[in-house]
């Protein structure tokens, strides 16, 4: 059967809109220091990427009495969104070039007590959304700050597996990848249980998985898309925190949970309309504060990082190019944040140096929210 661009594109859209598909097994991919690192090429599979609504082609149908359809083409056509895919691949290529230097015992033992406290030496750390972007760079930073094992939870099989293999190859420490959608509570519980069996109870959870919809007017926002974003950004953060929090409580182990929220949880972005994303991140901040209050008695700390505009694949969409100039002009530092600009704060919040901090929401935005 021959597939036209349009029929493939429609199939992709149907798959991408499908509810979470349940498979019977949560199969982690483990990279252990004693295991030979696997080598493989990065294949950004369109079908596997489609678990997140990130179109590679936008199908368009124009029905118009005034000849506009004829001017635009045959009436049914697709707009390629090549840059998004290229940006994702580019971010992998950029990350591939960076070194990861793990903190070894000799160096750690020679450090001052203050610097030792600012490390995450020996900690077991789960990062969601660690396949790429901010989550991936925070994972690298935690490895450089002494993590004993780094576990990536992400919905993207190809990128997640590649990210874990690469981090293991570069650092030599235990790294594993679990293909988990943060909307899938049962899969999360199974995966966290497996993490406990493999490495012990996690000390730190970094919730970085998230999606963004922007330039959608509230009056025409598709309720299904609204629910989907809330489900990933807010409910997903809750399900992860609940599962890891329970494991920490069961072990009687202190822990640190870091929620990646956004400045959009505190301000309304300009000029793009994105009511749902803003609401989701406001929810994440309030969720973080509520969990911090409830779980302080278990010595579990919960803090939020609220980034401003960051230069990641999430924002490398051609439609946002013009708006990026406005974002920069409204940012005192006159730039977007670099993909590793959250690293220092993340390590600090994960470390015992922040032991009296809980329920905080820290803006890291180049000064955007000053105006
Ligand atoms: N980039 C920015 O400007 C910016 C600003 C403020 C806050 N943030 C937040 O930072 C976090 C990371 O953003 P980023 O720029 O690195 O984005 P990104 O798109 O580069 O990475 C997000 C990762 O989350 C994963 N993911 C998406 N949906 C998932 C799901 N349902 N289950 C599991 N994994 C899923 C993706 O596969 C991807 O690997 C997000 O929560 C985002 O809202 C980003």
From TrEMBL:
Signal peptide: none annotated. Gene3D superfamilies: NAD(P)-binding Rossmann-like Domain. SUPFAM superfamilies: NAD(P)-binding Rossmann-fold domains. The keyword Cytoplasm does not apply. Keywords: NADP. The keyword Signal does not apply. Pfam families: adh_short_C2 (PF13561). Belongs to the short-chain dehydrogenases/reductases (SDR) family. This is Uncharacterized protein. It comes from Sporothrix epigloea.
